[in-house]
Amino acid sequence: MLRGVTLANAVVLNFYRADNFQRPVGGVICVLVMLAWTALAVWAYAAPRRRTVGLLVADLAVAVGLLAVTPLVKGDGFNATVPGFWVAGALLAWAVRYRWVGGLLAAVVLAATDLLVREEVTQANYGNVFLIVIGGPIVGFMCGSLQQMAAERDRAERTAAAAAERARLARAVHDGVLQVLSLVQRRGAELGGEAAELGRLAGEQESRLRTLIRTQERTVAGPGESDAVLDLAAELGRLESRVAVTVAAPATPVELPADVVRELCAVVGACLDNVAVHVGPQAPAWVLLEAFADRVELSVRDEGPGIPAGRLEQAAAEGRLGVSESIRGRVADLGGTAELSTGSFGTEWEIVVPVASGRH
Amino acid sequence: MSEHATGGAGETVATDASIRVMVVDDHPMWRDAVERDLQQAGFDVVAVAATGTEALTRFKAARPQVVVLDLQIPEPDGVGVTREALAHDPSARVLVLSASGEQADVLEAVKAGATGYLVKSASREELLDAVRRVAGGDTVFTPGLAGLVLGEFRRMADPAAAADPMQPQLTERETEVLKMVAKGMSYKQIAERLVLSHRTVQNHVQNTLRKLQMHNRVELTRWAIEQGLDED
């Protein structure tokens, strides 16, 4: 395309100033050479396998040759060279092929030829030469960057496709593993004895894997989540990997500032630790998360014997703040409240934390 | 085990031998295990299926009262099977038995009409009890599922969501009961705490599900009408 335009420019200019030629026949030959070479070059560059070093060298040589014969056909003291801007074709070919190094090399060769064949260098000549020397490397550099970007984009696309495929395979594999673990757990419990122990272990692993898959899927599914926001439902879901802990939460993500989410998870974790210490390491506990437009409500419940009346007051009187006060304090720091109810039915923490409206 | 069905042994309405059950699971090992357990307990297993298509064909031929259904099956999936099967025979009951723990799928299946949900790690006795209760018209909830349903009602009641006159709402009592189920309390414990009968607690839980399913049907119909109008 560029070659066509510059060729037309050179041909028209040469005819327009035909009287400048001292040897008109030589001038016509030069123009014919340019026509022939342009056609050949367009054809040759069309196929990647023909873009050899030889072709590029020949391309540059033709351009240099035409520059060099200018004094012969136009006589000394000419103003414009025969090919004029047509040499840009060869220059850009070099820049595209050999990046900025090629662009610079071709530009310097062309510029040197142009300057050497002239008797005197005017301001305009210098300007043109300068443009060529600057333009060659810049085009080369841009080609390099573009190609690099294209390569990086391809790599990113491949990585994304591979990740999606891995996730799909993982789901299929996990489902199979979950099925086997559940079956082992069920049959183990029925057989009793050592098999029951195996079954119990399989059950623990099943519940851990299930939690892992759930949290992973929520991470993958969350589009454009910034670091500052976390899904409280997914984070609490991780607590299910503890023995005998059940987490109930909405199906939709509950997104809150990451530090609030981490603090709430830590508080719930502390409540569950308390259950493990006071009721027993295997004691069941339930966590419920509810999300409202202006607040989140959390409940942590166990069915232990409850905290004996007066024990908390006694601890406070002895100057020990204890776990309960620490939980209240941490929730208060988030601007919320933590209520404790305890009795023969067990112990329940009810935590309410306000959230900025506009939460999705 | 992290989740179990709440509620004690429900009042058995029909005898086991007269309950016709179909088992749908693409894992042969699981399908056989569940089928054997049900048969040993005296249930009448009238059909088994490994894919959604198989399940729907055999459902129509065998007319089971209860479908014990895995959600992760070849097309159409468990949610689709639930919807199709119940459209064909609204008196049938679907008990979802899933190992996947995929919360969104379970919620969709319940919206489509399933009235029970158990994780596969539930014991043999829990499974048999769940099938009996579902056949008797009762709902079988895990705390996890109660949390999902509760979350769904909260989401719909969010003032930020588009106001919908058809939007179902829970009564205060229903919310209270559902919340207690989500906190892991059994129907018996809830009945004691609220000084209600066991049956009343069951009714409240069933109502919450019915409202959710009804809303889902209304939305589907509305969607179908809109699609139809757009095509004209």
UniProtKB/TrEMBL annotation, chain B:
Domain Response regulatory positions: 20-135
Stored InterPro entries: CheY-like_superfamily, NreC/VraR/RcsB-like_REC, Sig_transdc_resp-reg_C-effctor, Sig_transdc_resp-reg_receiver, Tscrpt_reg_LuxR_C, WalR-like
Domain HTH luxR-type: 163-228
Gene3D superfamilies attached to this UniProt entry: 3.40.50.2300
Keyword Calcium: no
PROSITE patterns: HTH_LUXR_1, HTH_LUXR_2, RESPONSE_REGULATORY
Residue(s) carrying 4-aspartylphosphate: D70
Pfam families xrefs: GerE (PF00196), Response_reg (PF00072)
UniProt keyword terms in alphabetical order: DNA-binding, Phosphoprotein
Protein source organism: Nocardioides abyssi
Protein name: Response regulator transcription factor
The keyword DNA-binding appears for this protein: yes
SUPFAM superfamilies referenced in this protein's UniProt entry, alphabetically: C-terminal effector domain of the bipartite response regulators, CheY-like
PANTHER family named among the record's database cross-references: TWO-COMPONENT RESPONSE REGULATOR
